[in-house]
Design goal:
Distance between the termini: 48 Å
Largest sheet: 17 strands, mixed
Shape: globular
Structural class: alpha/beta
Helix content: 25-40%
Length: 495
């Protein structure tokens, strides 16, 4: 017969958004001298607290997690001291764990959390209500509440597919897999390599709502065959990544390639296209997001592009990741296009300013994110906001507060309602606190990266008349963006 604690945990797992069972469970733990009861109370109140009380609770939370680290983190205590931002806490339990990649190891190349230690750590009480896990490989077990699993590389097994609580599976490299059969999986993300297409061809996923398929057009994914496989799946939302890998002597997709996908175009809500492409004549009436990977695959420079051969989408993401790209010519061709005139949300990740962007008006633009690539210190704000080219802009995402210098001097600052910033330490917080009075209409600050900061820094960010939203882990936000899950303003810019 289960004890009272197990019964309450089952109730919490069944109704994770209800506070009643948490409150009862916290009282039970406190009566037994377990500090997790205090942590539950603190984090519950922190969800709605404001002002001075919120600051008190932030310090109380930090004190509990520091003084009782071994109790709260168990085998993950050492990881928490170096990678605190990898943990998302909710009501006394670890809600999400993003295992740091091997490249984040020390100078001695120590792996932050080896796979053989991750498995046992998942059995710790703190992980009993974990709902999201990000790991390089499948750890051979899952906490019973995990709904979202992101893996860099894995052999899919019957044991993994037997996890009835799983709702979202995102896998970059599938090494091997049986037919994908799962009665309740709703979101699936795959790279079209190796056995992925065969696994999809024999899949039985009756509840699948969203499918993210990357690498269409590679050797393992000819458009016609991919279309035939996807047509049999029930997913009503498709997010497709189109590879530009040269084949048959051609260096990009043609109208004929896209025509092969036409029977499923009605369900396409997101497209990712890799340059070069001759045309993207694929009418997608429900297209919301268009991502362009602009780089040189052949060594030939990429200059002006005809953006008007592309399907229209209200949200556009330009990822310019090569010095073989003429940023000036690219920017000029973009602002001249009809596509630019209708874009409402624009994300840019580039190593230098995109030419004429900021010099020609974009009347419809409501949300903009600018992520300097290669150097986190690159500040393009003076060039971008020198002229009042974005009269409708209300949401802005920047990588760092130090890139606010050109914004505060522009008319944009007086109109912004949502601002999203990544805080890399006390210096970043100080820069923001000195600039915040220049944003009189700001309603929401989306604070990214703050999970790894001290309580003092987080508390300081609460000063002001605006709300503060503590953003989820950047890697999760990036993964959720292209599946359509990241719709909140200020979050979609985390790319």
């Amino acid at each position: 017969m289960p004890d009272a604690g197990d019964t309450l945990l089952q109730s919490i797992a069944a109704r994770p958004d209800s506070a009643e069972s948490y409150i009862e469970y916290a009282a039970l733990l406190r009566s037994n001298g377990d500090p997790r009861g205090d942590l539950i109370d603190v984090q519950l109140e922190l969800e709605t607290a404001r002002g001075a009380r919120a600051k008190e609770l932030i310090f109380a939370e930090e004190k509990l997690l520091t003084e009782h680290a071994a109790h709260f983190y168990g085998p993950l205590a050492e990881l928490s001291t170096k990678h605190r931002g990898s943990f998302t806490w909710r009501r006394g339990f670890i809600r999400g764990l993003a295992v740091p990649p091997e490249s984040w190891g020390s100078k001695g190349h120590t792996v932050p959390l080896p796979l053989d230690k991750l498995g046992p750590a998942l059995d710790h009480p703190a992980m009993r209500l974990c709902r999201e896990l990000w790991s390089k490989r499948w750890p051979k077990r899952l906490p019973s509440c995990v709904e979202r699993l992101h893996l860099q590389q894995a052999v899919i097994t019957e044991r993994l597919l037997a996890a009835s609580h799983l709702r979202e599976l995102d896998l970059w490299t599938m090494v091997a897999s049986p037919p994908l059969r799962h009665e309740r999986l709703r979101v699936l993300g795959l790279q079209l390599k190796g056995p992925a297409l065969d696994a999809l061809a024999s899949a039985e996923l009756p509840e699948l709502e969203t499918l993210v398929l990357r690498g269409i057009g590679s050797d393992d994914g000819e458009p016609g065959h991919v279309q035939e496989v996807l047509a049999r799946l029930p997913a009503r939302k498709l997010f497709l990544g189109v590879q530009s890998k040269p084949r048959d002597g051609r260096s990009g997709w043609t109208d004929g390639d896209f025509a092969a996908l036409a029977p499923i175009a009605e369900r396409v809500e997101g497209l990712e296209l890799h340059c070069p492409f001759f045309s993207a004549n694929l009418p997608c009436p429900h297209l919301r997001r268009l991502k362009l990977e602009l780089h040189s695959r052949t060594g030939a420079p990429v200059g002006e592009l005809d953006f008007d051969v592309l399907p229209r989408a209200r949200e556009l993401y330009l990822h310019v990741r090569s010095h073989q790209v003429n940023h000036t010519a690219l920017g000029e061709s973009f602002v001249r296009s009809e596509l630019a005139k209708h874009v409402r949300t624009l994300h840019i990740e580039a190593s230098r300013p995109i030419g004429a962007l900021g010099k020609a008006p974009l009347e419809c633009l409501e949300e903009l994110s600018v992520m300097p690539m290669g150097s986190m210190h690159l500040d393009v704000s003076h060039e971008l906001f020198k002229e009042d080219a974005f009269p409708g802009l209300r949401t802005l995402t920047l990588r760092m507060p130090r890139q606010l210098s050109g914004v505060v001097e522009s008319p944009v600052a007086s109109r912004l309602e949502t601002l999203s910033l990544y805080f890399d330490g006390e210096a970043g917080a100080k820069t923001w606190l000195e600039a915040r009075n220049r944003f009189p209409k700001l309603r929401t600050l989306v604070a990214r990266g703050t999970r790894q900061l001290s309580g003092a820094v987080r508390a300081a960010l609460l000063d002001g008349d605006h709300d503060v939203v503590w953003a989820e882990h950047d890697r999760w936000a990036h993964a959720h963006w292209f599946t359509g899950a990241g719709d909140a303003r200020g979050f979609a810019g985390i790319v």
